[in-house]
Amino acid sequence: MGNPHNRKFKCWAAACGNCGEGPSAEHLVSKCLFPEGVVRVSGFDWCKQEAKSIGINGLQRQILCKAHNSALSDADSEAKKAVGLFQRSATPTKDGSLGDNKIDGQKLERWLLKTAINLSYGGNLHIGIGMNGSMPGLPSPYLIDVAFGRRSFSHLMGVHFLLPDKATSHSPSEIIMFPLIKDGNIGGFYFELRSQPVFLNLFPGHAPPTLGAVAEKLGLQQALLDAKMVYRPPQIATISNSMPTSLIKLKW
Ligand SMILES: [Zn+2]
Ligand SMILES: [Zn+2]
User: Can you tell me the ipTM of this complex?
Assistant: First the structure.
């Protein structure tokens, strides 16, 4: 099942209509966000056995039509801005103002979701738990609607920010993403967006108190497994050398 290279082209948003302009070469993970970067992925059909580090250009597939691909570009821009803020270690000014430090959280969620779908498309796992119309390797109509901003996540689905109380280390040029899998279903995705870890929850009505509570053997640092998870926080502080350096405000 599964080498996406061998599939006949089918846009993953086709179930909700409005495809157009033929196939596009979508980067599974937006190139504009990580131009020099390496993405470390694991747990998907095409990299099941071990974590794979892949140059960003190696992560391109024909999985979205041009019309749907360009309808996601506002989510790409917001994610780019968010990642820029997450990695910034600016010195705060006296009044704490740092220019434009506001993120549209729902657009960031849409980017996380579409990236999660990109990586899972054509595999043998259900994307999300208990969703109407879900088929292995295909997003449900609900998830397609959320990805394109036609509806918003509810029931604790969406982004939970991990707020570790100890310092954690992150490779500056690498991002990490993997699904949390149970019984053939992807219950959520873990992302490290530079220095900010987040969990995209796709299990309606359920949210783990910590990542360590749902999966012990993730190969993550203990401080990340133990980190408090906060659903859609209105603001987060970025930390550098144990000092809060900037405040990021999130609109939901
Ligand atoms: Zn399409
Ligand atoms: Zn691209």
Answer: 0.67
Q: Which residues of 146-184 are buried (b: 16+ CB within 10 A; e: fewer)?
A: bbbeeeebeeebbbbbbebeeebebeeeebbbbbbeeee
**Three-state DSSP class for residue 82:** helix
Ligand 2 centroid to residue 74 C-alpha, Å: 13
Q: What are the boundaries of each domain within the chain?
A: 4-251
DSSP 226: T
Ligand nearest to the CA of 76: 2
- Tell which residue, 123, 20, 31, 2, has the closest CA to residue 65: 20
Q: Kindly state the tokens that stand for 52.
A: 């794979």
> For residue range 116-154, what is the model confidence (pLDDT) as tens digits?
999 899 888 999 999 999 999 999 999 999 999 999 999
CA of 30 to the centre of ligand 2 (A): 5
The separation between CA 61 and the C-alpha centre of its own chain, rounded to angstroms, equals 17
From the CA of 56, which ligand is nearest?
2
Question: Mind listing the pLDDT tens digit for each residue in 198-218?
Answer: 999 999 999 889 998 887 667
CA 228 – ligand 2 centroid, Å: 33
31 alpha carbon to ligand 2 midpoint, in Å? 5
